[in-house]
Design a protein that fits this description.
This protein is an alpha/beta fold. It contains 13 helices and ten strands. The strands form two sheets. Strands 1, 4, 5, 6, 7, 8, 9 and 10 form an eight-stranded mixed β-sheet that branches. The C terminus is likely disordered.
């Protein structure tokens, strides 16, 4: 167990044209209400309840959003919460944080509104001890088993299709090589084939033919990142792949939370009242 682990929450804004802020009527995505609570505070609450986490750092361009957030100390369960300036994109922010905060570093996102402490525990428990960095993924059948009909972006390898779960662990200083490679991949995150082209034509062709395994792709990524050992932890939690990236995601998350409370119909009826 990693007592005292630093958790970085990526909560940078996409600017005034973000469809989520426009649709929700807030000035920053982190302030969107989910289940009646600002989305960012829900993430901080999950990290505060995680025994592996010792401190929480929110990567955001407007630190006052965190500093003035009501109930912050309670949500963090007394763990220290500080801010770090967002660098314009998740990958650049992580690279900057690794240089400033060091490793090991647990990374998640401010729109991971359903985040649960047990997901974090599972991820950290099963990450290989030898890995420089690890990422959490969930198989498509696991995601669809818990959220039938949801639309996610999947990477389809020979053994299965996977969706990201917004949990990353950077264990060693060498892992910054992956953060730097991430910057190249980031702009293609919704285009799996173009993303795989970065691995080289042979790997891209194998991916296109459905013969590229996840482990082969990881090994190649590690080589491109300077010899980094990268690993995947498969999560058995389908909801871990759900973040609030578009209005349909917000509706899905609200529905799931209502179902958990056992009064979804009444809650949604109230929410729709003018």
């Amino acid at each position: 167990m990693n007592e005292g682990l630093t958790a970085l929450v990526l909560a940078g804004s996409r600017g005034p044209d973000d469809p989520m802020t426009r649709a929700s009527g807030v000035r920053h995505k982190a302030l969107i209400l989910v289940g009646g609570e600002p989305m960012l505070r829900r993430v901080i609450r999950a990290l505060g309840a995680s025994p592996e986490v010792g401190r929480i750092v929110v990567c955001i361009e407007s630190p006052e959003i965190v500093e003035r957030m009501p109930g912050l100390a309670e949500a963090a369960a007394g763990k220290p919460v500080s801010t770090f300036p967002a660098a314009g994109s998740p990958s650049r922010s992580v690279a900057a944080a690794l240089k400033e905060l060091g490793t090991p570093l647990l990374v998640t996102t401010g729109d991971h509104a359903l985040l649960k402490p047990q997901w974090i525990t599972h991820f950290l428990k099963y990450k290989p001890a030898s890995a420089d960095a690890a990422v959490a993924l969930a198989r498509s059948e696991v995601v669809l088993g818990e959220t039938p009909g949801t639309e996610r972006t999947y990477l389809r390898f020979s053994e299965a299709a996977y969706s990201g779960c917004n949990l990353f662990h950077f264990a060693t200083p060498e892992s910054i090589g992956l953060a730097e490679l991430w910057q190249k991949i980031e702009v293609l995150r919704k285009q799996p084939f173009k993303m795989l082209q970065l691995l080289g034509p042979t790997y891209a062709l194998r991916y296109r033919l459905g013969t590229l395994s996840l482990q082969a792709a990881l090994k190649r990524l590690g080589a491109l990142a300077g010899g980094v050992e990268a690993a995947v932890v498969e999560l058995p939690f389908g909801r871990a792949a759900i973040d609030v990236d578009k209005p349909a995601d917000l509706e899905l998350v609200e529905r799931l939370l209502c179902e958990d409370r056992g009064r979804c119909h009444d809650s949604l009826a109230v929410a729709r009242q003018p």
